[in-house]
Amino acid sequence: MIRQTTRRVLLYGMLASGMLAVLCPLALAAQAQKAWRQATDAELASLLPARAPVEKEHIETEMRTASGIVNGRGQTIAGVVLLTAGYSADGKYSHYLVVQAPVKIGGILLKPGEYAFGWTRAMAADTLRVRFHEAATGALIGTADAHRMAGTPRVESLHIWPPSDKSVIQIGRFAIPYELVEE
Fold it and tell me: What pLDDT shows up at residue 10?
């Protein structure tokens, strides 16, 4: 009887370890697909246009300011500064954003698509009011506040931080928090 119980325990142990050997790589692969990392310059250049289609204009972009994140499935959230001098943007837009995975930025849900956003100083000196627009139509999607980052961060025209680092979009010394939305 003891011998039979020992055999069953060993058999179940071998089956369980075999299942773990099969399931662990699958779990790790699924987790790797969800992991976000900083996008490379080549990835950004292939995604972001040299001239962004915003309303009726094709506004030149400043590719050296491009920033973005990409996940294991190749979905990217990336942005770049717009060179709006001479266009009818009227200060409404300063950045162009491409979203390939749903994201909430400052509480505003952005579905996959192309957006333009701009900012103005809010009444509080440590806050920017950021307005998100649908790039093709100029329709306002929503408004969010960017707050001055703690300490003395490096000033960047635009930096989209991977969620493992900060989960913020940095504009100058200001940041808007974001959260990735599961599909």
Answer: 54
What pTM value is reported for the model?
Answer: 0.79
Residue 91: partners with Cβ closer than 8 Å, 6 or more residues away: 84, 118, 120
Q: Which residue's structure tokens are 């773990």?
A: 20
> Read out DSSP for 104-130?
EETTEEE-SEEEEEEEEE-SSTTEEEE
Q: Which two tokens stand for residue 66?
A: 């491009």
**Consecutive 10-residue runs of the chain (183 residues): their mean pLDDT?**
60 54 43 78 97 93 97 97 74 92 96 96 88 96 95 91 94 96 83
CA distance 115 to 104: 13
172 φ, ψ to 5°? 65, -120
Q: In this structure, what token pair is assigned to residue 54?
A: 């915003």
Give the C-alpha separation, 9 to 74, whole Å: 44
